[in-house]
Amino acid sequence: MSQSKCDHGHKHRGKSSEHLVEKEKIIANLSIQPGQKVLDAGCGNGYMAKEFARQVGSSGRVYALDPDACSIRRLKEEIQGTVIEPFVDDITKQTKLAPDSIDLIYLSTVLHGFTAAQMQDFVVEVKRLLKPGGILAIVEIKKGETPFGPPQNKRLSPEELANTLGMRSIGLVEVGQHFYMQRFRIKDLPPTY
Protein backbone atom coordinates (compact mmCIF):
# COMPACT_ATOMS: atom_id res chain seq x y z
CA MET A 1 0.00 0.00 0.00
CA SER A 2 1.49 3.34 -0.96
CA GLN A 3 1.95 6.11 1.59
CA SER A 4 -0.52 8.32 -0.28
CA LYS A 5 -3.23 5.65 0.10
CA CYS A 6 -2.45 5.53 3.82
CA ASP A 7 -2.93 9.26 4.19
CA HIS A 8 -6.30 9.33 2.47
CA GLY A 9 -9.77 8.86 3.85
CA HIS A 10 -9.39 8.33 7.59
CA LYS A 11 -10.79 11.27 9.55
CA HIS A 12 -8.63 10.97 12.65
CA ARG A 13 -5.30 9.88 11.18
CA GLY A 14 -2.46 11.77 12.79
CA LYS A 15 -4.69 13.12 15.54
CA SER A 16 -4.07 11.35 18.80
CA SER A 17 -5.11 12.13 22.33
CA GLU A 18 -1.96 10.39 23.61
CA HIS A 19 -0.30 13.56 24.92
CA LEU A 20 -3.54 15.01 26.26
CA VAL A 21 -4.84 12.18 28.46
CA GLU A 22 -3.32 10.98 31.71
CA LYS A 23 -2.39 7.40 30.81
CA GLU A 24 -1.26 6.56 34.35
CA LYS A 25 -4.61 7.67 35.77
CA ILE A 26 -6.45 5.61 33.16
CA ILE A 27 -4.43 2.50 34.02
CA ALA A 28 -4.83 3.08 37.78
CA ASN A 29 -8.62 3.20 37.42
CA LEU A 30 -8.97 0.06 35.30
CA SER A 31 -7.52 -2.54 37.70
CA ILE A 32 -6.15 -4.68 34.87
CA GLN A 33 -4.75 -7.99 36.10
CA PRO A 34 -2.09 -10.31 34.64
CA GLY A 35 -3.65 -12.87 32.33
CA GLN A 36 -6.65 -10.76 31.35
CA LYS A 37 -7.85 -10.12 27.81
CA VAL A 38 -8.28 -6.47 26.84
CA LEU A 39 -9.75 -4.99 23.67
CA ASP A 40 -8.55 -1.52 22.64
CA ALA A 41 -11.30 -0.65 20.13
CA GLY A 42 -10.37 2.22 17.83
CA CYS A 43 -6.75 1.84 18.91
CA GLY A 44 -5.25 4.27 16.38
CA ASN A 45 -1.48 4.20 16.87
CA GLY A 46 -1.83 1.68 19.72
CA TYR A 47 -0.42 3.79 22.54
CA MET A 48 -2.92 2.44 25.07
CA ALA A 49 -2.68 -1.14 23.75
CA LYS A 50 1.02 -0.98 24.65
CA GLU A 51 0.16 0.22 28.17
CA PHE A 52 -2.41 -2.56 28.54
CA ALA A 53 0.15 -5.15 27.39
CA ARG A 54 2.41 -4.19 30.30
CA GLN A 55 -0.49 -4.79 32.69
CA VAL A 56 -1.71 -8.16 31.36
CA GLY A 57 1.82 -9.57 31.14
CA SER A 58 2.92 -12.57 29.13
CA SER A 59 -0.13 -14.62 30.16
CA GLY A 60 -2.62 -12.02 28.91
CA ARG A 61 -3.70 -10.76 25.53
CA VAL A 62 -4.44 -7.30 24.11
CA TYR A 63 -6.52 -7.03 20.97
CA ALA A 64 -5.94 -3.75 19.13
CA LEU A 65 -8.79 -3.09 16.72
CA ASP A 66 -9.14 -0.20 14.28
CA PRO A 67 -10.98 0.18 10.96
CA ASP A 68 -7.93 1.96 9.51
CA ALA A 69 -5.72 -0.63 7.80
CA CYS A 70 -2.71 1.71 7.66
CA SER A 71 -2.72 2.30 11.43
CA ILE A 72 -2.97 -1.44 12.04
CA ARG A 73 -0.17 -2.20 9.58
CA ARG A 74 2.15 0.27 11.33
CA LEU A 75 1.22 -1.09 14.75
CA LYS A 76 1.91 -4.68 13.63
CA GLU A 77 5.43 -3.63 12.64
CA GLU A 78 6.04 -2.05 16.07
CA ILE A 79 4.74 -4.78 18.37
CA GLN A 80 6.08 -8.04 16.95
CA GLY A 81 6.75 -10.58 19.68
CA THR A 82 4.37 -8.98 22.20
CA VAL A 83 0.96 -10.03 23.55
CA ILE A 84 -0.73 -7.42 21.31
CA GLU A 85 -2.77 -8.72 18.38
CA PRO A 86 -3.70 -5.85 16.02
CA PHE A 87 -6.43 -6.36 13.45
CA VAL A 88 -8.63 -4.33 11.11
CA ASP A 89 -12.26 -4.38 12.19
CA ASP A 90 -15.15 -2.20 13.31
CA ILE A 91 -16.52 -2.39 16.87
CA THR A 92 -19.93 -1.34 15.55
CA LYS A 93 -20.16 -4.70 13.77
CA GLN A 94 -19.65 -8.26 14.95
CA THR A 95 -15.90 -8.79 15.26
CA LYS A 96 -13.89 -12.01 14.94
CA LEU A 97 -13.54 -12.26 18.73
CA ALA A 98 -15.33 -15.00 20.64
CA PRO A 99 -18.40 -14.28 22.81
CA ASP A 100 -17.79 -13.75 26.55
CA SER A 101 -14.03 -13.59 25.97
CA ILE A 102 -12.97 -10.06 26.96
CA ASP A 103 -12.32 -8.69 30.48
CA LEU A 104 -12.05 -5.03 29.42
CA ILE A 105 -13.17 -3.11 26.34
CA TYR A 106 -11.57 0.33 26.07
CA LEU A 107 -12.51 3.15 23.67
CA SER A 108 -10.89 6.57 23.64
CA THR A 109 -12.40 9.54 21.81
CA VAL A 110 -14.20 7.30 19.31
CA LEU A 111 -17.80 7.06 20.49
CA HIS A 112 -18.77 10.67 19.64
CA GLY A 113 -18.38 9.78 15.95
CA PHE A 114 -20.95 6.97 15.99
CA THR A 115 -24.34 7.34 14.34
CA ALA A 116 -27.43 6.23 16.31
CA ALA A 117 -27.46 2.92 14.38
CA GLN A 118 -23.73 2.37 15.02
CA MET A 119 -24.28 3.09 18.72
CA GLN A 120 -26.96 0.39 18.91
CA ASP A 121 -24.72 -2.11 17.09
CA PHE A 122 -21.79 -1.16 19.33
CA VAL A 123 -23.83 -1.95 22.46
CA VAL A 124 -24.82 -5.33 20.98
CA GLU A 125 -21.18 -6.21 20.24
CA VAL A 126 -19.94 -5.05 23.66
CA LYS A 127 -22.56 -7.21 25.38
CA ARG A 128 -21.56 -10.16 23.19
CA LEU A 129 -17.84 -9.82 23.89
CA LEU A 130 -17.61 -9.00 27.60
CA LYS A 131 -17.23 -11.78 30.14
CA PRO A 132 -19.50 -11.68 33.19
CA GLY A 133 -17.99 -9.01 35.43
CA GLY A 134 -16.19 -7.45 32.44
CA ILE A 135 -15.80 -3.68 32.11
CA LEU A 136 -16.44 -1.20 29.32
CA ALA A 137 -14.28 1.93 29.73
CA ILE A 138 -14.91 4.97 27.55
CA VAL A 139 -12.75 8.09 27.39
CA GLU A 140 -14.45 11.10 25.85
CA ILE A 141 -13.88 14.82 25.50
CA LYS A 142 -15.83 16.82 28.06
CA LYS A 143 -18.91 18.64 26.91
CA GLY A 144 -18.02 22.32 27.00
CA GLU A 145 -15.49 24.66 25.48
CA THR A 146 -12.18 23.01 24.59
CA PRO A 147 -9.46 24.09 22.15
CA PHE A 148 -10.11 20.98 20.02
CA GLY A 149 -12.60 18.20 19.51
CA PRO A 150 -15.91 17.55 17.83
CA PRO A 151 -18.76 20.05 17.74
CA GLN A 152 -20.70 20.43 20.99
CA ASN A 153 -23.75 18.65 19.56
CA LYS A 154 -21.62 15.50 19.03
CA ARG A 155 -20.27 15.41 22.59
CA LEU A 156 -21.86 13.49 25.44
CA SER A 157 -21.82 14.36 29.11
CA PRO A 158 -21.32 11.34 31.41
CA GLU A 159 -25.08 11.28 32.10
CA GLU A 160 -25.91 11.43 28.39
CA LEU A 161 -23.35 8.71 27.69
CA ALA A 162 -24.90 6.34 30.26
CA ASN A 163 -28.40 7.05 28.92
CA THR A 164 -27.32 6.62 25.30
CA LEU A 165 -25.67 3.29 26.04
CA GLY A 166 -28.43 2.15 28.38
CA MET A 167 -25.79 0.92 30.81
CA ARG A 168 -25.07 1.30 34.51
CA SER A 169 -22.05 3.46 35.29
CA ILE A 170 -19.66 2.08 37.92
CA GLY A 171 -17.23 4.97 37.96
CA LEU A 172 -16.26 8.31 36.53
CA VAL A 173 -12.84 9.96 36.66
CA GLU A 174 -11.18 12.97 35.03
CA VAL A 175 -8.25 11.75 32.91
CA GLY A 176 -6.94 15.03 31.55
CA GLN A 177 -7.92 18.66 31.50
CA HIS A 178 -10.50 18.07 28.77
CA PHE A 179 -11.26 14.34 29.18
CA TYR A 180 -13.26 11.99 31.37
CA MET A 181 -13.33 8.20 31.60
CA GLN A 182 -16.54 6.44 32.49
CA ARG A 183 -16.70 2.73 33.31
CA PHE A 184 -19.65 0.40 32.90
CA ARG A 185 -20.34 -3.19 33.92
CA ILE A 186 -22.73 -4.91 31.56
CA LYS A 187 -23.01 -8.41 33.06
CA ASP A 188 -22.63 -8.88 36.78
CA LEU A 189 -20.69 -11.86 38.03
CA PRO A 190 -22.96 -14.77 38.92
CA PRO A 191 -23.51 -15.16 42.66
CA THR A 192 -21.35 -17.68 44.47
CA TYR A 193 -23.11 -19.84 47.02
UniProtKB/TrEMBL annotation:
- GO molecular function annotation: methyltransferase activity
Any coiled-coil ranges, and where? Answer: none
Q: Look up the domain of life of the source.
A: Bacteria
Q: Domain Methyltransferase: where?
A: 38-134
Stored Gene3D superfamilies: Vaccinia Virus protein VP39 (3.40.50.150)
UniProt xrefs under InterPro entries? Methyltransf_25 (IPR041698), SAM-dependent_MTases_sf (IPR029063)
Pfam families noted in UniProt: Methyltransf_25 (PF13649)
Could you list this entry's UniProt keywords, alphabetically sorted: Methyltransferase, Transferase
For biological process, the GO terms are: methylation
Keyword Methyltransferase in the entry? The reply is: yes
PANTHER family hit by this protein: PUTATIVE (AFU_ORTHOLOGUE AFUA_2G14390)-RELATED (PTHR43861:SF3), TRANS-ACONITATE 2-METHYLTRANSFERASE-RELATED (PTHR43861)
Name the record gives this protein? SAM-dependent methyltransferase, type 11
Q: What is the lineage of its organism?
A: Bacteria, Pseudomonadati, Thermodesulfobacteriota, Desulfuromonadia, Desulfuromonadales
